[in-house]
Model the fold of this input.
Amino acid sequence: MSASAAPDAAAPGATAAADRDPVATATREPGATVRAEAALDPAPVESATALGDSAPTVAKTRHPWRWVISAVALILLAQFIHGLITNPGWDWPTFAKYITAKSVLASLKVTLELTAWGTALGFLLGTALAIARLSNNPVLRVISWSYIWAFRSIPLIVQLLFWFNIAYLYNTLSVGIPFGPAFFTFEVNGVISGFTAAVIGLALHQAAYSAEIIRAGIISVDAGQLEAAAALGIPKVRQFRSIVVPQAMRSILPNATNEVISLFKGTSIVSVMAIAELFYQVQVIYGRNGRVVPLLLVATAWYIVLTTLLSVAQYYIERHYAKGTQRTPPPSPVQRAWQKLREVAESGSTAPRGATR
Done:
């Protein structure tokens, strides 16, 4: 009897120990997990019991003025569109007649040529000026700074007229040894035409602004990366081409695109030199027929179209140079559109046949 009584005597102690250890109780008794969690933290069980199964309701913040402002903006936009359609002063038939006229397209070609030459030469010279300002040579730094100061101070129209009338200062130009004999001489009027003078003025003006844009992009690159590249023995030219340029382009591109767009629209200033660019040709046409507003709309439409194309090109160039910061860049608008069409096509092909009834 004593041997059988020992387990009975030990049972109350074991039960008390198990009650003090909820984990042991949950392990020993099946279905006791809830009681063990309640013993560890009884508050959640009590709160869940008090609240029941219903989740708390979150009240949305109301913005009545947002809807009022949106409604007013849509009404004003609708009135503007209605005026564009119904007001005879816009003269849309004349606009449609001249938007693709041969004279307008030829002048548009001249505008694009001026923009291309001014951008290419301006940014090429601007890159050299930016490197000169960052060099250790004090002479190059002073010359670069003086050039940027001078050409940013003089208005563009003054520069264009100066180069257009350069023959008043120099009738002939010669190439030879400085302060020595000349190898050959040529007439200035025979070499520098109105178009050439416009390209020179636009390029020199653009170089002063692009130099500062490029310099800001170069100094935005962390100097520690160049120190690491020098410690690895990478040549200077390769450091500039492979390390500095890809990172600096992310800072250069937005401002550079703004400058190109400004130059594209700024070519209208060369109309004072009687160069048949877009704005000059539009002036000639409405000077003959008196249709000022629709002809100005023709020039405005072409400026908007080409500025939009430059903005699209900027987006994809920035996307290319963003690979250093984003391993997987987000999809482009064209890719998102194709993906949406693919999803719609797949959902239509997998739809059950009985769903159309």
Summary: The longest strand covers residues 182-187.
